[in-house]
Amino acid sequence: MTENESRFKAKSTIKSADIEHRNKINFNIGRYKAVVPQGKLQFADNNLVKERAKNIKWRALETLDQHLEEFEMQFTKRGGKVIWAENSQEALDEILTICKEKNCKTIVKSKSMVTEEIHLNHFLEENNIESIETDLGEYIQQLDGEPPYHIVTPAMHKSKEDVAKLFSNKLGTPPKLSPQELTLVAREKLREKYVQAEIGITGANFIISDIGGVALTENEGNGRLSTAWPKTHIVIVGIEKMIPSITDLALLWPLLSTYGTGQKVTVYSSIISGPRQEGETDGPEEMYVILLDNNRSNILANPRQRESLYCIRCGACLNVCPIYKNIGGHSYGTTYSGPIGSVITPNLQGLENYKHLSFASSLCGACSEVCPVKINLHELLLANRHESVEQGITSFSEKMAWKIWKIASLKRGMMNMGNGGLKTKVANTLFKDWNQYHAPLKFSQKTFNEMWKDNLRP
User: What is the CATH number of the domain that holds 137?
Assistant: First the structure.
C-alpha cells in the first residue's frame, strides 16, 4: 500500500463517520439538487444538448494541435503572448519571470483549479509574493489554510457559522455576522488588494481557437476585476479547455451554469482576446496565456481515457457521487476530487501513486448519467483498474490470491472441495483487505453444482 493510499483510507474512515460533516454536505447538495431541474427547463431536449456538447469537445480534442496553433496565431495578432508549459514547474518558472520583470509584490487571483493543480499560491509565497484569492469561497479556504473542497463550491463543507467563526479568528470581526455581513467584510478587504496588485491571474472555462479568446464565467465579478485592474493579466489554462468556435459558447455556457449551479446562465460572462487595444479604456497593458500540458497529452494519447478530457468542470458528478458525499473532497488528497478526479488523477500523476482512487467507487453509474458532456466515468474507472493490473501495479499477496482463486475456479473438483468452514477460512485469510472494510466472506456447505445434482436425484 502506497503512502497516498494509506492516507486516503485513513481520512476517508474518519470523515465517513463524521455526522456533522455529512449533514452540512447533504444540506448544501440538497439546495443544488433543488435548483438544477429548473435550469434544465431551458433545454427542449436535454439528451440532445448533451450529445451536441460532447461532439464539440470531441472535435476540439481530435484536432487539438490545429486548434492550439490557431489560438496562438489569433491571440498574438492582438498583442497577447502565448507560453507553452510542459509541466507545473515550467509554468511556475514562467510566472516568476513575469513577476520579476514587473517588480510584482501583490497578485489578485480569480478562482482557478489549474492554479491549484500547480500549487501556485504556495510557490508565490515561497518567493515573497502575496497572492490573494478573490473568489469568496476560495478566499474563505485561503484564510483557513485549506485547499478547495469542491471543484465549483470551494467551501461547500462549511456552514455560515463556521465562516463567521473563521472571519472572527482571522480578521477580528464580530463572531455572529450574517452571510450578507460576511460578504461585505470580504468585499472591503479584497477591493484594497485590487488597487495594490501589479498582476491579475485567472484560469479559463474555455479557450476559443477561431478568435484567440479566453472565456470566463463567474457569479461575483472577481474575475473581471482581476483581469481589468492590474496592468498585467496572466491566464493559466489546461490545453484540454479548447473549443473550436465562439459560437460553441451558446451551448456550453448555459450547460456549464445549469449543471454547475442550477442557473440558466451565470451572472458575469466574459470573452477576453488580448490586452487593451488602442482607444480602449479598460483592460491590462499586457496579457499572457500559459498553455499547460502537465501530462494531459498522455491522456490524449490513450484512446480509452481521452474522453475524460471532455470535462467542463461543472462538478455535477461530485454532487451525485455517494462516495464523495460520504468522505468529502479533502479525503482524496488531490486537486480534482470525486469521480472525475478519480479518473484523471491516476493518469495525470501516475497510476502507481493514485490507482486506489479508481477503486473508491460504487460503480453505480450516477456520475456518467449526470455528466453534461456524456463522459462514461464509471467505465473509465474500470479502465484505470484494468490498466493498473496490466502494468503490474499490485502487491505480491494480491497477485497470489487471485492466481489461486483463478486456478480453483477453473477446476470443478477444487470448487467443490472444503465447503463451509475450510473454504471460508482460506478466503478470509487470502483477502485480508476485504475483511478490513466488509463483513467476512462466508461460503455455504454445498456449491450450487452440488445442490443441482442433489435436486436431480429421483
Answer: 3.40.50.10420
